[in-house]
Amino acid sequence: MRITQKGQVTIPAEIREKLGLLPDTEVEFRLEDGRVVMEKASGPPRRGKRVVERLRGRASADLSTEEIMAMTRDSD
Predict the structure, then answer these.
(1) DSSP-derived secondary structure for 40-72
(2) What CA–CA distance (Å, rounded) separates 27 from 39?
(3) CA 25 to CA 41: how far, in whole Å?
(4) Burial (0-12, 13-18, 19+ Cβ within 10 Å), 30
(5) CA 50, 51, 55 angle in degrees (round to 5)?
(6) Could you give the CA distance from residue 65 to residue 59 in angstroms, rounded to a whole number?
(7) 47-56 as b/e, with b when 16 or more CB fall inside 10 Å?
(8) Contact 29, 37 (CB under 8 A)
């Protein structure tokens, strides 16, 4: 495996799948006994936070909870 000019490497699919490293997963690097260790960043997932921020403020309060629930129920 080679490091690109930008300092990038490809994490093999088998390792990504085993560790659950999906696109946009935040990771941290540290040195440990002369080795580089990479792991998922601690804290809340950043992708989810971005999604929530994009959606924040888009709902309206024109309908009550009961009206919204009625819309989602099967009308049969």
Answers:
(1) EPSSS-HHHHHHHHHHTT---SSS-HHHHHHHH
(2) 5
(3) 8
(4) exposed
(5) 115
(6) 12
(7) eeeeeeeeee
(8) yes
- Retrieve residue 48's tokens: 């989810």
Residue 76: which pLDDT band, with cuts at 50, 70 and 90?
Answer: low
Q: Report residue 19 as tokens.
A: 């560790």
Of 26, 56, 30, 32, the C-alpha closest to 44 is 26
- By residue count, the chain amounts to 76
Q: What is the pLDDT of residues 12-71, one digit of tens each?
A: 999 999 988 888 888 899 999 999 999 988 776 567 777 777 777 776 778 888 888 888
